[in-house]
Write a structure and sequence with these properties.
Elements: H1 6-11, H2 35-38, H3 87-90, H4 100-104, H5 109-141, H6 146-179, H7 182-208, H8 210-213, H9 224-261, H10 265-299, H11 305-330, H12 333-359, H13 369-396, H14 401-405, H15 407-413, E1 416-419, E2 422-425
Antiparallel strand pairs: 1-2
Helix pairs in contact: 5-6, 5-9, 6-7, 6-10, 7-9, 10-11, 10-13, 11-12, 12-13
Length: 439
Amino acid sequence: MSTRPQTEIQNWSHPAPSLNTSPTDDKVNYDDLFDEYAADYNKNPSHQPFAIAHPSTPQHRRVPSFPANQSQTSLSHKPLWDYPPSSSESAAEKEPSRPFWQKILPDSLYCRLYVLTVIIQTAVDLSIEGELLVRFHQAGLGLGDDTAAAATRKMNVYLGIFVLAHVFQMVMALDAVYNRNTLQVFCLTAFNLSFMIYSIIQIGEIRELGGGLSQQTGFSDIPINVLTAIIPCVIAAAELAYIGLGWKIYTEFGWQVYKFLGADRQIKKMYAHFQVFECLIKFDVFFWVAFCVQLIWLVLQKQDWEYYVTVAALPLSIIVLVEGNLAAKHENKWMMCTFISGCFGALVYFGYKLVKIINLRSSEFSLTWKSLTIFSVLSIVMLLITIIFAGILIHNFNRGLKTQLAKKSKLKTAGLTRRGTEYLHRGPMRTHPNRMSID
């Protein structure tokens, strides 16, 4: 009897015998195998019934069994309930961090052209406004008359507000393309149109002091009439570009918003109200700051109690607006009610200042009553619209919009990262191979 171990005999496999083979045919005798296989298993190192891998590799182990009612992927050997992988598995393979400008720069061609147009307009207009500010400063130092010096100081403040408006426009443009806020793009187009109207009015105001400015030289020798004429031309050319690019961005953002919110018209309507409210808050910041800056630097004196009230109200008003934005995002009714109370307080303040400006337009506000009246009226109108939309948002609370807005953070947790105006999948493919889906 053969001394070979039973494990060896079990591991050998032979083809089934042919049906045509008779019992009397010769068969292979297992005893006639090579002598090395007849030796003891432990004493023969070359005896390898299985294809054993390199000794350093782990030995073969049985794959754990799964219930019959549980499916298993063919390649990853992972159950379907464990797909997609958790964030801890993909944390080891994170994409290298990109520069800040690549994170905010949009991927769309039209969005990039829009941002580029805003940057070029801002650079050209700020260069000209800086030249005018230098010349006004030099002209004011050489004037002895108090009225002429006050007029020069007024123009310095107006030009400073114009510069602030351009910086505000550039920041708002970047925010609009990053957050896919189509309404904000259209509002910036109207805001730029007001720039053009103000720049045309500014030409006459600057030329009233043309005698003093023509004798001053700044960074260039360009005449003052040419500088003041370039600004509305640049703004008009940019306005045409904003209108054309705004329509392309509208069609592109419409598809992005549809992918983000779905086809629910009620959710899309509530999201539109949310975007209007955010846009109103941002423009409220500009008009409030512009009004307070003019009031502090041109009218109020340090010995006046209103001076300190206005200085304290400026940062407080910004805090109130930030609170309103947070209340809308988190759907907090108490915060929104506090925000509405602050808006009513600001409404009373602007109404009081408007009445005072109109009554004292021939004495205390003789040089500034026109611009202060415009900014106070615009601030009151913006406040009324903001209060109305705040009430609409309170009505929309707890109706599903907050869940849709939280989708961005959920997508990031699942391995999706934001690049400009699109979501790109950055998770490692080895954790979920050969998985396909339809966007």
